[in-house]
UniProtKB/TrEMBL annotation:
TM helices/strands, residue ranges: none
Entry GO MF terms: efflux transmembrane transporter activity
Keyword Lipoprotein attributed: yes
Membrane topology designation: Lipid-anchor
Family stated for the protein in its record: Belongs to the outer membrane factor (OMF) (TC 1.B.17) family.
Subcellular location: Cell membrane
Name of the molecule in the record: Efflux transporter outer membrane subunit
Lineage: superkingdom: Bacteria
Organism phylogeny: Bacteria, Pseudomonadati, Bacteroidota, Cytophagia, Cytophagales
Organism: Dyadobacter psychrotolerans
Record key words, sorted: Lipoprotein, Membrane, Palmitate, Transmembrane, Transmembrane beta strand
PROSITE patterns the UniProt entry points to: PROKAR_LIPOPROTEIN (PS51257)
């Protein structure tokens, strides 16, 4: 007896209608923020973001440190592994488009009830004169052996699997952009800590110089006391100031150790001394141009990553929408099948089949609807994240441009202030020797010049840190 399975066209039409009548269009992502044409006070020239980090930074010691960090930094290595995981997801999605074929070797058996169709049929068959000894059914336990191949394939008739593959590939590209974003941040962090160390070296040198001056002042006031022109209180005040300045030197030493250890952590190595220049070798551009905002923001890896995530979520929406449509599944089998092991590889034991069918969700589709809602919400969230990345990028560039400009002005005033206060120290010392100034005026002048020199060093450091942050914020440092 042969059985023929045919799909009724009316049933097929009903399946397609019920499955597809409620399909909704994906949420459109057409509300992205557009950046202004230029930054305030900037022309449309090519910005510093197009420079490679090895060309932008001119200090050889810093270049060597950045190169070490790019080779050994653990965050960067973890980002590489995330790329590999994302690459695997792409391969998985590609594999879903192809039939799966598996080799199978199986064996088993069962006992049919005596009062079932199979039980009666098997029992009665053995009495037939049309079968030979090899075809007699063993009983009452019926073995079943199979050696061969089984295959299954979901035919992508609506493009759902291709859409999923596109989403996986887009996320793979996003992980590469995430690695680039980590790279830009790493380059900026290494450079910032390097200049922080150089600034601490400058502060230590300033403090050490002032310790020498204050020691001279202590000796001078002691001589004045012996000559009856000063008292013990003046000596104690000068000694207290000297002790305070020496404690500042130790604080700077501790900060240097902490900063070196933090930098070594970025370099992926245990604490050790950081080789650095004695003077800043970084060339500060006379005129800094950030470039055209739209081009800069397109260059930033975090903006590109946010855009790719937005596209991936849009593909997820499309795949969730297509999940409501019928899926065409084809299964097939080819191999040897027998109920006697010695007959398993007999030519008569060859068995094969093929089956295709359409399956569509009709009832209880809440899980699919929930999945669609989730992808829509994720898609809108990705759009907002993309808009935020644009706002953040523009804000960072604008802030650092202004910071460079303003710190340059502040540094000019601070240099003049240091020069005036240094002259004031000399003047107060001369006046004290001649009796026209008190020891408190000398102490105040020395304290003021120390604070002004440290402030000037800090302002110069902030100026270079702003340049580094500008380089990062315009998308430089990842090539």
């Amino acid at each position: 007896m042969k059985t023929y399975n045919k799909i009724n066209p009316l049933i097929l039409a009903c399946i397609l209608f019920v499955s597809g009548c409620k399909l909704t269009k994906p949420v459109q992502q057409n509300a992205a923020i557009k950046a202004p044409v230029t930054f305030e006070g900037q022309s449309d020239s090519i910005g510093i973001g197009s420079m490679k980090w090895s060309s932008f930074f001119t200090d050889k010691n810093l270049v060597a440190l950045i190169d070490t960090a790019l080779q050994n930094n653990l965050d960067l290595k973890m980002a590489v592994q995330r790329i590999e995981m994302s690459r695997s997801n792409v391969l998985i999605s590609q594999g879903l488009l192809l039939p799966s074929v598996g080799a199978e070797v199986s064996g088993g058996g069962r006992k049919f009830g005596d009062y079932t169709m199979d039980g009666v049929g098997n029992y009665d068959t053995n009495f037939s004169g049309n079968i030979d000894a090899n075809r007699k059914i063993p009983g009452p336990f019926l073995p079943d052996y199979f050696v061969g191949f089984r295959s299954s394939w979901e035919v992508d008739i609506w493009g759902k699997l291709k859409t999923q593959r596109r989403a996986a590939y887009t996320r793979f590209l996003a992980t590469e952009k995430a690695k680039q974003a980590i790279t830009t941040s790493l380059v900026a962090q290494v450079a910032s800590m390097y200049y922080e160390l150089m600034n601490l070296d400058s502060e230590r040198s300033i403090i050490h110089k002032n310790i020498g001056l204050q020691q001279t002042a202590v000796e001078t006031v002691k001589i004045q006391k012996e000559g009856g022109r000063a008292n013990e209180l003046a000596v104690q005040q000068f000694q207290a100031q000297l002790l305070n300045t020496k404690s500042l030197e130790i604080e700077i030493d501790q900060k240097i150790i902490e900063t070196e250890n933090q930098l070594n952590m970025l370099l992926g190595r245990f604490p050790q001394r950081i080789m650095r220049s004695t003077a800043i070798e970084q060339k500060f551009p006379q005129q800094i141009q950030a470039g055209i905002p739209s081009q800069i923001l397109r260059r930033r890896p975090d903006v590109q990553q946010a855009e790719l995530e937005m596209l991936a979520n849009y593909s997820d929406q499309q795949a969730a929408r297509l999940a409501f449509l019928p899926s065409l599944n084809i299964t097939a089998m080819l191999g040897f099948n027998a109920f006697k092991s010695n007959l398993l590889f007999n030519p008569g034991s060859i068995a094969y089949n093929a089956l295709g069918g359409l399956a569509a969700p009709l009832l209880n589709r809440k899980a699919l609807k929930a999945g669609q809602k989730r992808t829509e919400a994720a898609s809108i969230e990705a759009l907002y994240a993309y808009n935020k990345s644009i706002l953040t990028g523009f804000q960072e560039v604008s802030t650092n441009l202004k910071k460079i400009e303003n710190t340059k002005k502040i540094a000019g005033f601070k240099r003049e202030e240091v020069a005036v206060l240094q002259q004031a120290v000399t003047t107060s010392r001369d006046l004290f020797v001649t009796g026209y100034a008190s020891y408190l005026e000398i102490i105040l002048a020395q304290r003021s010049v120390l604070e002004a020199e440290l402030t000037l060093t800090g302002v110069q450091k902030e100026q270079y840190l702003a340049l580094i942050e500008l380089y990062r914020s315009v998308g430089g440092g990842w090539e």
